[in-house]
Amino acid sequence: MISKQIEQVLNDQINAEFYSSYLYMAMAAYFRSTKLNGFATWMEKQAKEEEEHALKIYEYLNKRNGRVYFKSIKEPPFEWKSPLDVFEATYVHEQEVTKSIERIVSLADGEKDYATSSFLQWFVDEQVEEEYSVLQILERLRMIKDSNQGLLMLDAELGKRNED
Ligand code: FEO
């Protein structure tokens, strides 16, 4: 059995993960509109992963006899100034997700809900990977600045994520 507080914050996290998926699909659509299809592919894959994160929590809550409820998902932004702008926003967003996961871990620890802490360890590790991969792309976009050639090379590389 899970406490009402943990049930609520895990439900909030389900919503946050679906929002992440929605946000990354909006970014993918922006990239499709600018014909940077490799960037778009990368974001579409990222959106899929976020959906999987939401479903992992859904399964966990059900297993612990918690109740899942779905709230509205916030509308994501529609427009960005550049690929750099997108990845600056992505990096900020992932750091917020990390904080949110860490907050739930400390609540679970405070309640001695060791099962939830253990379950969330996967998310803690995943956030390290996500922040790392987003930062790699962000740093390279900062190096590329206004070079179209550099941007197209990175686009080709990111498009390979589809083959993972
Ligand atoms: Fe589910 Fe990108 O964190």
Present the secondary structure layout.
Layout: H1 4-33, H2 37-63, H3 83-110, H4 114-144, H5 148-159
Helix pairs in contact: 1-2, 1-3, 2-5, 3-4, 4-5
MU-OXO-diiron binds next to helix 1, helix 2 and helix 3.
Task: Give a quick rundown of the structure.
The chain has helices at residues 4-33, 37-63, 83-110, 114-144, 148-159. By secondary structure, the protein is mainly α.
Tell me about this structure.
By secondary structure, the protein is mainly α. The chain has a single domain, classed as Up-down Bundle (Ferritin), CATH 1.20.1260. It has helices at 4-33, 37-63, 83-110, 114-144, 148-159. The chain is elongated. The model has no long low-confidence stretch (mean pLDDT 97). The site of MU-OXO-diiron has 7 residues, from helix 1, helix 2 and helix 3. MU-OXO-diiron binds at residues 17, 20, 50, 53, 94, 97, 130.
Terminal residue distance: 38 Å
Which homologous superfamily in CATH is the superfamily? Ferritin, core subunit, four-helix bundle
Query: Which small molecules are bound?
Result: MU-OXO-diiron
CATH architecture: Up-down Bundle
Q: How many β-strand runs?
A: 0
Overall pLDDT metric: 97
**Any idea what the radius of gyration is?**
17 Å
Describe the largest sheet: none
CATH topology: Ferritin
Q: What would the principal axes of the Cα set say about the shape?
A: elongated
> Helix/strand-derived class?
mainly alpha
H/E element order? HHHHH
Number of individual domains: 1
Task: Report the helical percentage.
Answer: over 70%
Low-pLDDT segments: none
Helical segment tally? Answer: 5
